[in-house]
Design a protein that fits this description.
Low-confidence stretches: none
Order of helices and strands: HEHHHHHHHHE
Strand order of the largest sheet: 1-2
Strand content: under 5%
Radius of gyration: 20 Å
Largest sheet: 2 strands, antiparallel
Number of domains: 1
Number of helices: 9
């Protein structure tokens, strides 16, 4: 999708953005990315979080060499995730979340192979893609599903080339319709347009 003429003029006039003529493209923070996945899938639980299910104090036998660590799965906003100092949350650490042992004035943004592997293998990501595919399933046909997927994920209409590529993907993917759409949604959710803000 092309930029509006005024945006293109701003970028041409200040290509390095030294005068802040345009919004600098950036990847979503780890928390924004996780919350966006949950929102797109319809799985985000907006109710306030309560206490984490820590083990009863009477059972504690933690030591310096055997410290407590846990990851509590939740569909609450990422602000409610339990973050430990000695072992970072796997999702937040993978996507450059703040280091809980230090003051983080500005986060790094890395691009590493393990991030791509996350989108291929992680159960949480697959669950969100499957949930969105199930939301699209009741629509009357693939054209309607494509339009709705683009509306949910990108807040815009798909262009003709995107529609055609999606139909080609669906036609060639060797699975039933539910699995085809789950795979297509994974492709869209792992794409730059979903993961970045322009």
């Amino acid at each position: 999708m092309g930029l509006p003429e005024s945006a293109g003029a701003s970028i041409n006039a200040d290509p390095d953005n030294r005068l802040l003529a345009h919004f600098p493209r950036r990847r979503l923070t780890a928390e924004e990315m996780r919350d966006s996945l949950l929102t797109a899938s319809g799985q985000l639980d907006l109710t306030p979080a309560e206490a984490h299910p820590f083990p009863a104090e009477s059972t504690w036998k933690f030591t310096q060499h055997g410290p407590f660590n846990a990851v509590y799965e939740t569909n609450k906003r990422s602000a409610y995730l339990m973050v430990q100092r000695q072992r970072r949350h796997p999702f937040l650490s993978l996507f450059d979340g703040a280091d809980p042992n230090a003051t983080t004035a500005a986060r790094q943004t890395t691009t590493v192979p393990t991030q791509a592997l996350y989108f291929i293998n992680d159960p949480f990501f697959h669950i969100q893609a499957d949930a969105l595919a199930k939301k699209l399933a009741p629509l009357p046909d693939d054209d309607a599903r494509i339009v709705e997927a683009w509306r949910i994920l990108f807040q815009r209409q798909p262009n003709p080339a995107e529609t055609q590529r999606t139909k080609s993907f669906l036609a060639s993917y060797p699975a039933d319709n539910a699995a085809k759409w789950a795979a297509q949604v994974r492709v869209l959710m792992a794409g730059n347009e979903f993961l970045h803000i322009d």
